[in-house]
Amino acid sequence: MAIYRLRSLAKLPFSVRTISSSSIIPSHLERVGFIGLGNMGSRMANNLIKTGYNVTVHDINLSVIKMFSDKGISVKGSPREVAEISDVVITMLPSPSHVLNVYTGPNGLLNGENPVKPWLFIDSSTIDPQTTRKISLAVSNCALIEKRDHCVTPVMLDAPVSGGVAAAEAGTLTFMVGGADEAYKAAKHLFSSMGKNAIYCGGAGTGSAAKICNNLAMAASMLGVSEAFVLGQSLGISATTLTKIFNSSTARCWSSDTYNPVPGVMDGVPSSRNYDGGFASALMAKDLNLALTSAKEIGLNSPLTSQATDV
To answer: Which intervals hold domain 3-hydroxyisobutyrate dehydrogenase-like NAD-binding (predicted)?
Structure first.
């Protein structure tokens, strides 16, 4: 139902506010709430602030909240308080349980059965498609405090990202977006403020599905590249030489040419700073378990997923 109620959204005559000669923010996106200020979320929020959005933030980590408040950014004590003053809310959280709690918990974004202010919710967390669809349905069952022409209910986009911390910092993330096509088109300015690519995947949950598939492939390739480096160095070939070979032949991949796992081979990556600021192995294990669970639910045998999860 939310898709049909929203179908005129991309064509609505929203006004725009000029922030600078190179940045124009549509009025329907002007006030953004951002919840989840970890390695990725804090950098994404910073890029929205740099673009000129009116951003309000929330996180359970008080030290990171202080960092934002010290810069004059509005902070709130709960997801509900963020939603009360936002046109759009973006969430970037560690796991499905965190996302469910932020949306539907006692002080959650959806505020029980009461009408909500945000017309759009964007979840950039990496979670399973089933949880995404459950939350998307809950969002579509809410009413809006302020009706927006033909849009009478809020909508949700699942928009997980790829690119890592470096891309979040540089604003070059890739967004994989699921949900109503009209909402995706209406929110493009947000995505372009935080990334360089936004790829529409289909209906609710397809962005989440794309992300767990992407991370499955990346995990398997990183394990293979790492194993090859260990073998090659054990056989007397330096990691630098192996990297040159990989990156000029058939082994080339993101794990070899962008996020090399061997310390000292590539500048600016976690392996060259004692693995500080990288993607936590616990999160990759979580993502692999999401992929494995999804595969089992549809009866798909995924031996590499199982092996990577065990490792």
So the answer is: 205-309
